[in-house]
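Feature request, filed as a ticket because there's no other form

It would be nice if the structure record came with a short human-readable summary line next to the tokens. Right now we just get the raw output. Example of a typical job, pasted below so the devs can see what we mean:
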Amino acid sequence: MHNLPAAAPSISVRLFGSLEIRRGGVALTAADLGGCKPRHILEILLLNLGTPVSKTRLIEMLWGPDASDGAVATLESYVSGIRRAIQPGHTKTGPLRTANSGYVLDPALVDLDLSRFRGLVRAADLAAPAKTYVFLSEALELAAEPLLGFELDAEWAEEARTRHAAERVAAMISAAEAATFLGRHDEGIRWAQSAIRLEPLNERAWTGLVTAYELAGLPVQGLSAYDRCRRLFSRDLACAPGPALQAAHLRLLRRRADADSGFSEVLAALLLLWDRLHGSGPQSPAVDDRLGENAGKILDSFLQSVRATA
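Raw output as currently delivered:
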């Protein structure tokens, strides 16, 4: 009877929040890996899961331009220690392999939370709206804590956090849009607000927020959000919001006007002046002759009432 070869070991790794490495039921620590530098080597390979990283690149990232002549031997020694920790007895068949004058982690043998996050986002792109929101919610819950939050001094870790932050904001905006489409307006508002807190100049996030307020039947909140966006863009970008946001703003103005006859008259006067400034003149179907004659008076009266209540 032939003995079957032992299955190659796999590892499970968490990079969100505190680093956690598990081999089977065993939790590994940085001490098990051999210290700080071996931990960094493993983390860099995890960030590049499935893609070889050369020894030259690893040395550059870990020691910079002042690396000693013995850096290659030191690196190889550290990698041997990592192999003993994560794949004991499987030097050639475990997750960590030698490849292209460097090293690579086999994605088939590594369950990485960052990879699961990205897989869920990709699945959301291909799914029906209801399933899209489920996938995005799961991805964002998985990535609730900072990536590599325990590596505060490493430049390569900060670069990885910056890239992931952009991915996370994009997922939040997509979640906001999916929730709003499904009629879950409170959740759409919450996700859009979260994205704006992280990227205040992200126009798509502001569009998602204003649209969610619009579809939730909250025109006052939508108009307030648009005004905050407009002032922020004017101050920091020296530009106005784009056409999609401006269109949402106009719809909110009209909706607000429908609920307030006095405001409706003011809006009509503003539209008349807009038409005239842009050459469309009296052809605007929304304005009658009486309004045309009294547009200035209407706006003046409105501004006086605003001043009186300010």
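Something like this underneath would help us a lot:
Residues 1-6, 280-288 have pLDDT under 50 and may be disordered.
The two ends are 92 Å apart (CA to CA).
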